[in-house]
Each structure stands twice: as structure tokens, then as C-alpha cells.
Fold:
Amino acid sequence: MVSLGIVGAGQFAGQFATLFKVHPDVDRVVVTDLLRERADELVEREGLDGAVDSFEALLETDVDAVALFTQRWTHGPLVVQALRAGKHVYSAVPMAIAEDEIAAIIDAVRETGLTYMMGETSYYNPATVFARKKADEGAFGRVFYAEGDYVHDMDLGFYAAYQYSGGADWKRTASYPPMHYPTHSIGGVLGAIPGHAVSVSCIGVRDDRGDGVFDREVSQFGNDFSNASALFELDNGGVMRINEMRRVGYPSHIRESRFRYFGTEASFEQLATISLWQDKEDVTDVTADLTTLPSMPLDDPSLAHVAPELREAFVSGHAPVHDVDRLPEVYHGMPSGHEGSHHFLVDDFVRAVVDGTLPPVNAWVAARYTLPGIVAHRSALQGGERLTVPDFGDAPAELPTPATSEPTATMATGSH
Structure:
């Protein structure tokens, strides 16, 4: 059995906390947050096993693993700190925001033998699952070009999310560079076809709304790009085009990640409400196979703590293309999220910890989903100059057995 500490009691942490809590191989879930009242509220609302005063205090307890749901630019150092403290780590995306942070995570995983998994939803996106199956069958022929778009307008949930997490100073962090959050687009491409990026040229679009978001004078990151488009060369000679868009007239509450794959024998394309499989003779509408249905109404009382703009991402069930039989029975009928991915994310992490296996989006795969975006942003700052994308290689066949150690303190809990 696995005991787990949730780090960060924000809006998405609640659903994941519930999924961890009911998993048959998890026996205890505690939580910590910089705002203790948020941790206590999450414990009460989701029936968790207590709250801990700080991240450092959590690492001193006997929990086996931690799940990070902190601000996106904080993940790298926190992951390394947790691994070095002997904890398995599930991390929300992105993996990190700098190459040296990614290298440090890979070194820590290699040296400790502990499980690291990045919670990339697009790996389990119905379109990615469908395309992965087609690629495995050879139905595409050679995939020579693919596209991944993360089309999430700031007006459709991101303002609310940054205001919730950033407080009065939220505009400083709402300017987060789009290409530093590339995994929802890259993950759907590389999660379906083999290969990794080797070079990139990227163009950034400077924002012109003038509301203080994506303002270089305000931005913590010195960023004024609200949209960015990158063209990647892949190691297999193919091409990957990635769009990260934060000012876009697109219904991201219907579909925030969309994908296209072109092969020598067949292709697959998505729009907001339709998905098509095409070969040299015919077009097949596969929309029904890839459509997830809401598992509860958007006005369900259990969603009262979630901003209305974000609720769509919390209530999806599964698509017919998903292999739901592999999930714990307790998950059947429970809300998932992000087009059915949340159940698979939690189960794959728990299974990796329990079985001592590498999860699908392990540290080496996560690096291939994350680092290309970091380099792409650098290219955009240099006017689109073509830059080399470093690669950390494939995951090893096996990692060393994690060392066991006695906890340095007992679990500190809060009231329910």
C-alpha cells in the first residue's frame, strides 16, 4: 500500500486527491499548502487523512510519495528535493522550466531508483490513444508531419486560475511564457508517434491587449508573448509543428488540445467537434470513438469550489477508445477530467510505485515533452533562430532498487 502527500491545495488538487484516496493501493492521503486554511478545507471536503504544516515537514514524515500541484515554475526544484528525501514523485506539468532543472531530476531518478511521473493529460487524450494504436498497427505508413495545438484562451479559465493562485500580484505570473507550458501539445504528438525533437525555429506573437498581462514591465518572466508557433525537426526526419495560444478565438472548453498526424498511407485530423481518419480513398468520421461524455452536470454542488470557466475540465468520463477495463473498479462512474485522462494518470503512477516499473511519462519521456518548448521560447526571443534541442536519451531498461530508510518524524495531521 502507498501513502501519499498532496502538495498544493489548488483547484485541480481536489479531484486528484479524491482519486488517490479511493485507489485500492493507496491507504492514506495528506495535504499541505502555503495557505494552511486551503489544506484544511481540502481535507474536510474530500475526507483526507490530515494536513501538514509545510512541504519540508511533509518530507520528514513517513509518506511514500508526494504529488505536486504547485505553481508551474516551481516543479523542478521541489521534485529533486522530494526524490532526495526518499519520496516517489508525481508532478503536474510542466516538468521544469530550465534544462539544468530537467537534468537534475533525471540524475535524481537514476541515482535513487525512485518513481517519477509527469502528469501529462495529452498522453491519454482520446486522439492520442487512437493515433498511437494506428501508429502501432502501421496504418499511417511513415508519419512525416504532425501538429499539436494547445488553444486555451486566457478569457476561458486562465484569468480565474491565476487570480486564485496569484493573489493581488497575479498579473506578474499570468504572463508565463506559452512555450514553457508545451506538454499538452507536444505530449499528444510524441505520445502517439516515436521520435523526439532535435531542432526548432519558433516565432512569438507579442501581446497587444494592454491589460497588464503579457506586459514585459510587469511580468515575472520578462515575457510579452501570448502566442507562439514552433517548427521542430524530429530525429526520424519528420516534422512537428506546435502551437501554444493564449489569445485565440477558439472554444477551448470544448477541446483545448487538438492534433493532426500525416503519414504516407493515412492521416488523422481534429477540429473542435469533429475527428476524421483519412486514407488515399476515403474519409471516416471517428468522432464518436473519441468523444467523452460529462460524468455529472456542470452545476453539480460538488463543483461549487471550482470557477465556472474551469468546470468542463473536471467532469469528463471516458471515450470508447479508452481501455477502461484496466482501471480499478472503484473508478467506474467517477468523474475524470481532461478528456478522461485523470483516472489513467493516477492509476499509472500508483501502479509504477507498487510494481517498481517505469510509468509511461517517466523522467526521460517528460524531458522530451518539456525541453523542446524551453528551447523554442529561446528561439522566439532570438527572432526565430533555429536552435538545437538537447536530448537526455531513452529511459533505462531498469533503475536501481530504491534504498529504504526509516522516517525521520511521524505524520503530523490536522482535524477533519
Summary: Residues 122-322+362-388 form a domain with the Dihydrodipicolinate Reductase; domain 2 fold (CATH 3.30.360.10).
